[in-house]
Design goal:
The protein is α+β, with helices and mostly antiparallel strands. It contains two helices and six strands, in the order βββαβαββ.
């Protein structure tokens, strides 16, 4: 079965789909002057948009990895996450403190999801 890639760039593809499974590249906020709630809200919006492009959505998440620049942002990120995540379909998730490539980025989120039938 073929791998289908979307938004292919020199360094990465934003989306890869294989056998009904959707893999997104790590999503960050474009407006890195926002606080953790603003950046998280923007990142989750990117995820919604990308999943919709390939016939998926947040209720089909299989796995999520959240990278935050400082655990002091954990509560703020979770407040936005809790408003966004599909209740009854919360995915397995890991949250890790990490030094991100751009020091102004406070959060990066990577998801794997299933396509809708």
């Amino acid at each position: 079965m073929a791998v289908i890639r979307h938004h292919v760039g020199q360094r990465l593809s934003e989306i890869a789909v294989h056998n009904g499974t959707v893999y997104l590249a790590g999503q960050i906020a474009e407006d890195d002057d926002q606080d953790i709630t603003g950046q998280t809200r923007e990142v989750l919006g990117h995820i919604d948009r990308l999943l919709a492009e390939v016939n998926s959505d947040k209720s089909h998440l299989l796995s999520v990895q959240v990278y935050i620049s400082d655990m002091l942002h954990f509560a703020g990120m979770n407040a936005v996450w809790d408003e966004w995540v599909a209740q009854g379909a919360t995915p397995p998730r890991a949250t890790v403190e990490a030094r991100l490539a751009n020091p102004k980025c406070l959060v990066e989120i990577v998801v794997v999801a299933a396509q809708r039938s």
